[in-house]
Design goal:
alpha+beta; Alkylbase_DNA_Glycosylase/TA; TATA-Binding Protein; alkylated DNA binding; about 325 residues; endonuclease activity; DNA damage; single chain
Length: about 325
């Protein structure tokens, strides 16, 4: 019938008619590229893929990251050139990489930096026996550099003020529903949504994922200026953190967590964390009630390398005995 309303099948509908909210991405898997782009690179130093790339993993069921039993890593990214999937394997000291999708060449070009080629661990001098022992046991540890900001910024915002399990769940649900299947062989990976899609996630879906309005609003503010946020990856760490912190809701904790990954910043120590000050205080001074100020004082001998020092302390595994209950989970999706 002429003039009859015909709903767009690609848009969700609610009472009152069609909305501008995109429907969930169909779960079909994209056609595999005829041939993957490949690269072989031999680092001139020991390399531990799990240690280097581990900080990019947001929980054991992260839909953008997978580590296989043989130690190889697959990760899906949204690059400036488009979605891409990277598969990295270490064999006899050499890195063998395959990549698929529009972002394949971008990912392969930056493979050495991703795996720590721009890092300078030789600039680090241990000042404590525990730190020296931790470094000695992990010669393959280097600080990665992804060159991508939003892929670390959004999950870091989700992790603000809640348990990691709750944040991992929110990231998993939102990426699987609004992301897209990663290019290449079907491995069940997803590329996170593009900024416009994040901006159109309806309020009830944030709620179902357990994300409160404060964190959702911070993400919405960030994705509106995603291009400006991505520019921070090419800045000096201090400037990059300042750029991120221009967004209301992004403070020193979040900006440090991002710049550690996107810029490979060795001095971007995380302040405002619930556990890190106590762990550092206990490991270096036997103190159980260390605050941020005391932690920074203990890390002062590592000025310029404080993030690396904190990472080695965490890897040492010396943590204070628990004297208080775990942070309470609050399931806002049940409200």
């Amino acid at each position: 019938m002429a003039g009859r309303f015909r709903p767009d099948p690609n848009r969700a509908t609610v009472r009152g008619g069609a909305t501008g909210v995109p429907a969930a991405i169909p779960r079909q898997v994209p056609a595999t590229a005829a041939t993957a782009r490949t690269r072989r690179w031999t680092p001139p130093w020991p390399l531990d893929l799990a240690l280097v790339l581990g900080p990019l993993r947001r929980g054991p069921a992260d839909p953008t990251f997978r580590m296989t039993p043989d130690g190889s890593v697959r990760r899906a990214s949204r690059t400036p050139a488009g979605p891409g999937t990277l598969h990295v394997t270490l064999r006899a000291g050499a890195v063998e990489a395959e990549a698929w999708g529009p972002g394949a060449e971008w990912l392969l070009d930056r493979l050495p930096e991703l795996l720590g080629a721009a890092d300078e661990p030789e600039a680090f001098t241990p000042r404590h026996r525990l730190v020296a022992a931790s470094q000695h046991r992990r010669p393959g540890l280097r600080l990665l550099r992804t060159g991508l900001v939003m892929e670390s910024l959004i999950p870091s915002i989700l992790e603000q003020k809640i348990t990691t399990d709750e944040a991992y769940r929110a990231w998993r649900l939102l990426v699987r529903k609004y992301g897209e299947p990663a290019p290449g062989p079907d491995q069940g990976l997803y590329v996170m949504p593009e900024p416009r899609t994040w901006a159109l996630v309806p309020s009830w879906e944030w709620h179902r994922a357990g994300v409160d309005n404060k964190r959702a609003s911070t993400i919405l503010r960030a994705v509106r200026v995603a291009r400006r946020m991505e520019e921070a990856a090419a800045m000096e760490p201090e400037q990059a953190m300042a750029r991120l912190e221009l967004i209301p809701g992004i403070g020193p904790w979040t900006s440090a967590e991002v710049i550690q990954r996107s810029n490979g910043a060795p001095d971007a120590v995380t302040v405002g964390d619930l556990h890190l000050p106590r762990i550092v205080g206990y490991a270096l001074a036997g103190e159980r009630d260390t605050d941020d100020a005391a932690m920074l004082e203990l890390l002062a001998p590592y000025e310029g390398q404080r993030h690396r020092a904190a990472r080695l302390i965490l890897l040492a595994g010396r943590v204070p005995p628990r004297r208080e209950p775990k942070m309470r989970k609050v399931d806002i999706a049940a409200w």
